[in-house]
Amino acid sequence: MGSGGRKSVEVFEVQDFEQPWRNIDWNPSNLKSELSELLKFMEKCKNIRQFKILLHGPVGAGKSCFVNSVRTVYKERIVFVAAEETSAGKSCTNTNKTYKITDKDSVTLPFVFSDVMGLENQDESGIHLDDIINVLHGRVKEGYQFNPVSPLTDADPDYIHEPSLNDKVHCLVSVVDANKISLMEDEMIQKMKAVRKSALRLGIPHVVLMTKIDVDVCPLVTKDLAEVYKSRKIIEKMQEFSHTIGPPLKCMFPVSNYYEETELDDKKDVLILSALKAIAGFVNDFIEDINI
């Protein structure tokens, strides 16, 4: 007991790791070269023009911002094309929209991002679960406007009855805000589990991007992004999401999108390229598995 009968409270400081718990090459040029080799393999597949990567997740997690960040890395200048979600709490993306990626020499890369309306807790808000599953199957035409309370049906003119390999999704990427993983309500958890289960049933690889890692999650990372893989807080957030939704840690990647920056940042580039390299690798595995 302390003075006045009050109990003393011990405060434990979270200790970060001395050595990184995941190795990463912090040279963006090296990562681009490695990624280029994976993309060359994808280009050899004659049955698919461009591989489709579906971005999905809660509103405000940074899906559209990630598209702009990837374009920024490849254009080697700050790019803003995809409408980014704001703090207003509503999705900026309301249609089924596909984004191509080109480099600074205007060469088109062999993959596209499919960006859809964000998930919300309430069934009457955000993208309907059936519509995400329709996108996974390749049944939704480009430009289709999502209706939270009325998903696409086979009677709709925007419904693709016989989707080709080009229409289908080849990798599912869940985008989640690191700061909100502990705050996810059961409705959101069940929706994300259902989407993951549908993708795995189709043999589609599933990757998770954990965004906003330098915003209030860990002082070490806020100070220096290069310390991300020494951060105990970061791996704890990843483990929490893994235990809640199901993906293994090897399929999860912390990233920091370009948001307010006006100049390029090698550390951001490396984390983005590292995630893309993993996605490309999983897509290549998918190609081999289905023999196309």
UniProtKB/TrEMBL annotation:
<dbReference type="InterPro" id="IPR027417">
    <property type="entry name" value="P-loop_NTPase"/>
</dbReference>
<protein>
    <recommendedName>
        <fullName>Interferon-induced protein 44-like</fullName>
    </recommendedName>
</protein>
<dbReference type="GO" id="GO:0006955">
    <property type="term" value="P:immune response"/>
</dbReference>
